[in-house]
Write a structure and sequence with these properties.
Elements (H helix, E strand, L loop, with lengths): L7 E5 L8 H10 L6 E5 L5 E5 L7 E5 L6 H17 L4 E6 L17 H12 L3 E5 L14 E4 L2 H11 L6 E5 L5 H11 L2 E6 L43 E3 L6 E9 L3 H12 L4 E9 L5 H6 L5 E5 L5 H6 L3 E4 L2 H13 L15
Parallel strand pairs: 1-4, 4-5, 5-6, 6-7, 8-9, 8-11, 11-12, 12-13, 13-14
Antiparallel strand pairs: 2-3, 9-10
Helix pairs in contact: 1-9, 2-3
Length: about 350
């Protein structure tokens, strides 16, 4: 049954077959068929897009999930958006459940804010609206000059905890670093559970040591500074021993985060929790990139289960590691598309969503 008004076209912009699965689920929920489009790579690796039906005066929604070749994924999206723009589509909404390069949203030493560049590119190509989910930093919405709906996957993950973990009342929500504490607190308050924070683990690429506040280098250059204006040096950080703030002994530990890619920090956190007496360890994340040998590391680790959503296709990783489970979020994406197309309010999808969620 068609749940939308006329004039709606849904395309999947990805040339990889497994990445089109989410688009099929969304179209099925909306009672429409996917638009006819051909996306492929030329012999010289150039991306070619051929739209095979009229989009003139229609609301176009382009669903793009990130494959292993993220740069090809971006080019497919850009070319399809521009093709719809030059074909006189009334509006073009991008549905990117995982926004690529979102982890590169802070200035590094002599680097750049790449997510700002990607935002400028999709806007310049002709995108008029963006639907995404659990941006790595909510401030990324400010990089766009178009409306952005940053949906949340937490209701689906919370539902999984309540329905699939029988003894979840004996669980504790764990932040694997102080940076994840707000997300862990949000989960804990909704489930009426306790919280624990792991502090003192090795710093990763998101730490303050590599952001723009340490550029230029912290060395004394008294030759160019007046003696009476010598700038004091910042005392270097010293990581404390690994400690767990909170009681996890005899409890189920549920580690929550937004992205699970390089799993080393999750594996180390699981080992620490096991040493502190946790008898079962779950990892919950919205985006399961699971790059490189992540499935093998998970299989060999103390982690009992990794639960991620299908914002990114990971069927191959699930075959390599049976501990990986998937939660379907096509329902909220299809409802967002329906409401935008019909001109309805989006506030229903953000009920009880706080600033820190």
């Amino acid at each position: 049954m068609n749940h939308t008004k006329g004039g709606l076209v849904i395309f999947t912009a990805n040339s990889h077959p497994s990445s089109r699965e989410l688009g099929k689920r969304i179209a099925e929920r909306l009672g429409v068929e996917l638009g006819k489009v051909q996306v492929y790579q030329e012999a010289n690796r150039e991306t070619r897009v051929q739209i095979q039906e009229s989009v003139r005066g229609k609301d176009v929604f382009i669903i793009q999930t990130v494959s292993k070749d993220v740069n090809t994924t971006i080019m497919e999206m850009l070319i399809m958006v521009y093709a719809c723009r030059t074909s006189c589509a009334r509006s073009i909404t991008g549905v990117l459940p995982y926004f690529p390069y979102s982890k590169q949203c802070k200035m590094r030493k002599r680097g750049s804010i790449v997510s700002k560049l990607i935002a400028s590119m999709v806007c310049k190509a002709g995108l008029t609206h963006l639907i995404t989910m659990d941006l790595h930093q909510k401030e990324i919405q400010g990089f766009f000059n178009i409306p952005v709906d940053n949906l949340r996957a937490s209701p689906f993950l919370l539902q999984y905890i309540q329905e699939e973990i029988p003894d979840y009342r004996n669980a504790v929500i764990v932040a694997k670093s102080p940076a994840s504490a707000k997300r862990a607190q949000s989960f804990a308050e909704r489930l009426r559970l306790g919280i624990a924070v792991i502090h003192g683990e090795a710093q990763d690429a998101e730490s303050d040591q590599v952001d723009g506040r340490h550029s230029p280098p912290t060395v004394k250059t008294t030759g160019a500074i007046h003696p009476s204006m010598e700038i004091p040096l910042l005392i270097p950080k010293e990581k404390p021993p690994i400690t767990v703030v909170g009681d996890v002994g005899g409890r189920i530990a549920i580690i929550v985060d937004d992205i699970i890619d390089d799993v080393d920090s999750f594996v180390a956190a699981a080992e620490t929790l096991k040493e502190r007496g946790a008898y079962k360890i779950f990892v919950m994340a919205t985006h399961g990139l699971l790059s490189s040998d992540a499935p093998r590391f998970i299989e060999e680790s103390a982690i009992d289960e990794v639960v991620v959503t299908n914002t990114i296709p990971h069927e191959l990783q699930k075959l390599q590691c049976p501990k990986i489970k998937t939660v379907d979020i096509s329902m909220i994406l299809s409802e967002a598309i329906r409401r935008i197309h019909n001109g309805e309010s989006m506030s229903y999808l953000f009920r009880n969503i706080g600033v820190d969620d």
